[in-house]
Amino acid sequence: MNKTLLEENKAKLVAERKRLKSVLGHNTTADEEFPGGLRPQFMEAGTEQGENASEVEQFANDLSVNDDMEERLKKVEAALGRIAAGTYGVCIMGEEIEEARLRAEPAAETCVAHAK
Ligand SMILES: [Zn+2]
Q1: Stated pTM of the model
Q2: Domain locations in the chain as residue ranges
Q3: Which of 34, 67, 82, 110 falls 20 to 30 Å from 74 in CA-CA distance?
Q4: pLDDT tens-digit map of 44-76
Q5: Is CATH 1.20.120.910 correct for 3-114?
Q6: If you measure from the C-alpha of residue 76 to the centroid of ligand 1, how many angstroms do you get, rounded to a whole number?
């Protein structure tokens, strides 16, 4: 594994983890009625029928965006875990992951051939 690339990607992953955590923290507020105690904030869009519909839609969008970011955060943290464990840059099938792929996607867990 290229040590320079490893250090670069570690820095990228740490920065991305920090960004995701701050964005996720910003978009949620403590609310014990909501599963996990977190509730995405959504716009107060008025009381008319159509406005309520857009409010619900906005809420659903926030939930789905939050889910995507939670997934991404898990991936980033898993990659940082592999760096700590000394297994970073190895495909789940055992071979080394191409450097170009790791440059494009620091959190990659497979080589190009085994990517979904
Ligand atoms: Zn592979």
Answers
A1: 0.70
A2: 3-114
A3: 34
A4: 555 556 667 777 788 778 888 888 999 999 999
A5: yes
A6: 19
